Amino acid sequence: MDISIHLSTLPHDDPDASVAFYRDVLGFEVRSDVGQGKMRWITVGPADRPGTGILLAPPAADPGITDAERRTIAEMMAKGTYGWILLATKNLDSTFEKIQAADAEVVQEPTEQPYGVRDCAFRDPAGNLIRIQELR
After folding, report:
1. Which long-range contacts (CB under 8 A, 24 or more apart) does 104-110 make?
2. Which of 36, 37, 92, 101 could make a disulfide contact with 134, Cβ separation 3.0–4.6 Å?
3. Does residue 34 surpass a pLDDT of 90?
4. SS3 57
5. Which residues pair with 6 in a beta bridge?
6. Which pTM was predicted?
């Protein structure tokens, strides 16, 4: 079997702020931007890895989601507990400094974890947790 990860999805509540973060701060390319207003589905990813990306999507856009579920999603996004992703880099300190300089919300500075990885964490404009692990 030959299976790979093509896209992972994160919610956004401000598509322009999300594009600015993933493009200008993380350096990802914007591959597609479909829709209008807040109802936009935006695909971003590293330029040197065209087969891997992140779909930034409006939360709760599915018509089958109830109003109560929409409220829960909005509450979880506001707390930063709805979406997260784990990224990786060879130079964690340099990456941390660049993201921090862009005024991203720092959750954790580079730290050696007891489970054997060194990583840091930020929040994107929608509150999603972005953990970045150092490749060794």
Report:
1. 104/21, 104/25, 110/134
2. 92
3. yes
4. strand
5. none
6. 0.92
